[in-house]
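Hi everyone, sorry if this is the wrong subforum. Our group has a chain we'd like a structural model of before ordering constructs, and none of us has done structure prediction before. Sequence below.
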Amino acid sequence: MSEETKSLNFIEHIIEEDLRNGMPKNNLRFRFPPEPNGYLHIGHTKAIGISFGLGEKYNAPVNLRFDDTNPTKEEQEYVDAIKRDITWLGYKWANELYSSDYFQQLYDWAVQMIKDGKAYVDSQPSEAIAEQKGTPTQVGTNSPYRNRSVEENLELFERMKNGEFPAGTHVLRAKIDMEDPNMLMRDPIMYRIMHAHHHRTGNDWCIYPMYDWTHGESDYIEQISHSLCSLEFKPHRKLYDWFKEQVYDYSAKEYPLTPKQREFARLNLSYTIMSKRKLLKLVEDGIVSGWDDPRMPTISGLRRRGYTPDSIRNFIEKVGVAKRENVIDVSLLEFCIREDLNKTAPRVMAVLDPLKVVITNYPESKEEWFEAENNPEDTSAGSRKVPFSREIYIEKEDFKEEAGNKFFRLKLGGEVRLKNAYIIKAEKVVKDSEGNITEVHCKYSEDTSKKVKGTLHWVSIKHAVKAEIREYDRLFMDEAPDSYPDKDFMEFINPNSLKIINAFVEPSLADVKVGERFQFQRLGYFNVDDDSTPENLVFNKTVGLRDSWVKQKQKPKQKSTQNQQKTQQQSQRKAINVIQQLGKKYTNLPEEKQQKVKADIQELAKDVSYDELEPLFGTAVKKVGTRIATMVVLKELLKNGLERNDSINEFIEKALEDKNEILVAEANAI
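Answer:
Right subforum, don't worry. Here is the predicted structure as tokens:
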């Protein structure tokens, strides 16, 4: 078997098998069929990626079809949003179609089924119909109206269409088998009466086809070769095929190809809900500002938060196509946007929690403009000028009056480097009446060749631009907020999912445009919000530089006292030793597991000093996992202000020459 064949997912294997068995490649046709009753969310991106990805792979058309069969829940707003989101993701559809385009054809086929004794009008209340359905272990019972004459059924169905009956008085049902083990086959409803205005057909119809009747027949009309849907539709496949067989008998000449339904596992994401109904409740209850709130898992929300199309498509590729349901950790999605923005986002300086620093030996009237690299990952990104003056802002957390050796930032009597500028030494503090530090007085040194361990970002007060920062966090505090039968998912809302911060940014950001993305150095990735104006800059936090939720994740329960003792022993071990242990097996792990282990290493790095890490720079070449773990820790220390030195540079350069792609990628990221 060739490498190319091995890499095919199970859907591609099905298609390849069909092609080998004689299906002309020109017959390949796919579709993405959303219901326009809400905005698309991250779960839909998998279905979008599969269908449009197959279209790209086989150079086959992909239809965008709106299954608009329920006028009470569908709106043009949702149609427009869906089209906008798919376009933003970078996909193009061959035809824009609507199930409502086929209402007349569906009606004509239903009439033919009545004539053939395969459908009948049932006049029972919905409760009676539901009760007669039976259970998975008990067969159903026939409706008393099941044997109505063809003439009576035709007359009633036409009168239903003409609007002569109120809603709920009659339905049209397929006549299949009330004893079928698959409950969906027990005379399913095909049409119900709804006196509702449709967003496209207006008031032309007052009977509307049910989803199971409409969906498969729309596929058939469009001559879709492979009808791909999520796993919950697998029980529907038998009904899909039964309806398909009926209409094929009526229209085989006009529509010679019969679609094939196949199911894949849908995308489930931790700390997220995927139900449109529940997402709508968040909007209607004012928990979020709208469908495009950056905390929402909608594609519109992800776009506004700063996610890129490439990061989402890369995420879908990493998730893959599976046959079994599973839950993907949201940290993988966050990893994908970090990976993308690390390559493309310009580095800038912003201070979110300012502390004033006065450089006492720097002239009051003097200012300088220093050259600053825009993106070390992109040599073509160029550079910009940043201003420096006597008074600057740094982050409050970057200063302590007294601190230990693991604190690489500014402390009294200690020195740090200001990014792109001078080295400063803290000499005294000024406090208010309550003992809070309001200023730090420092002296600067023009000798920038000195070796110091810490590097801080900063903003010149004289040149600082005010900005509103919307710091978003996960909307839910539980990994599966809608999985509890005895609890409302709303109970798990994170009360701190949004913080509004008044910050200061460097002047190069004064003229930013909506949608532009940046890395605020040492803080995370941010983008310019839709609400931003030149007079009031607004930035959304897309994602931090690392996963801040790692330490909050529940650890699995231990199965025995022996395992508990082992865990306790591990917790007592030094962080650097645990990191070495994690690194040993790193390269043997699947990619998703690697990301989780990497996040654990990043969290452990908080308790590692440079003196503990440096001996690992000499790790043997064959122990590549340990070297990767060392590189991950080193990156965290550098982010927290550790100053580069010759040993660090030599370790990185050696890694860049390695054959292992993961190690090279980690080295490139520093």
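For your construct planning: The domain at 276-344 is CATH 1.10.1160.10 (Glutamyl-tRNA Synthetase; domain 2). DSSP finds 20 helices and 29 strands in the chain.
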